[in-house]
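Researcher: Here's the sequence for the chain we discussed earlier.
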Amino acid sequence: MKVVLIFDQGLAGAGGKSNPNVGLTAVKGGIGSSLMLEPHFEKIGAQVAATLYCGNEYFQNNEEEVVKKMTAMAKKVNPDFVLCGPCFNYPDYARMAAMISTSILENTDIKSCAMMSVENGDTIAAYKDKTPILKMPKKGGTGLNDSFADLCEFMKCSVEQSAELENVRNRVCY
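Model: Thanks. This is the structure I predict for it:
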């Protein structure tokens, strides 16, 4: 399974709060926080083909452009699945992830989801009917490995169009 990751500058390893204006960037393979996902992805035969990212401030100043370009970039890579997150409890990143995942689902045939903690309630409420939003703990919370296992189960069922998808979705999404 070929996967594209959508990160903010922090998860990409391109600078946290000190570098919020990082422009739209595409990198082949996984970078930054993709390392924490790799052991889970290996269990389902998933490999990160590319990581797309930008800074939170850059996104806020260029929302339409970023959503459109990230959707087009994902389409060009042609993965089986696009993961927008994990966003933890970062509200700006969560909103960006939900918007991009929604666009990918509406404008391509690629499977996608966003992943964030319950602290992003406004974004969850606004987007949960437009894109799957998977549950995860806030940064520093317990249960991260379990949420990644749920993510992989969801990804596998989505890509394989498994009959179990609806049951998994009801269990792991908001």
